[in-house]
Amino acid sequence: MADEQLSLILTTAPSLEVAHQLAHGLVTERLAACVNVLPQVMSTYVWEGRLQQTEEVLMMIKTRSSRYAALEQYIRAHHPYDTPEIIEISGSRVTPPYWAWVLKETTTG
User: Fold this and answer.
1) Domain made up of 6-105: CATH architecture
2) Contact at 8 Å (CB) between 91 and 39?
3) Could you read off the pLDDT of 35-49 as tens digits, one per residue?
């Protein structure tokens, strides 16, 4: 696990209720150490040829890079969107105490 890094995953949800359900499942399944839920972001995008402007909830998910595949699979299985946004940002610099906590909280078995 020498190449293990912190991963910050960004996704959006259609409501606070959905975001809280996803967050609870991700943390309970130890796929994430922490999920920040930021309500009321306005997303502007083109979907199926039409300009859209939608109020969404932004989720910032902290995990270890080796948990990304399982975390992505969980989001795809439980997210109401057909094409959920799932973006991974690698954290090359993380304070050692926080990194130790993330590792502890995302360790299974």
Assistant:
1) 2-Layer Sandwich (3.30)
2) no
3) 999 999 999 999 999
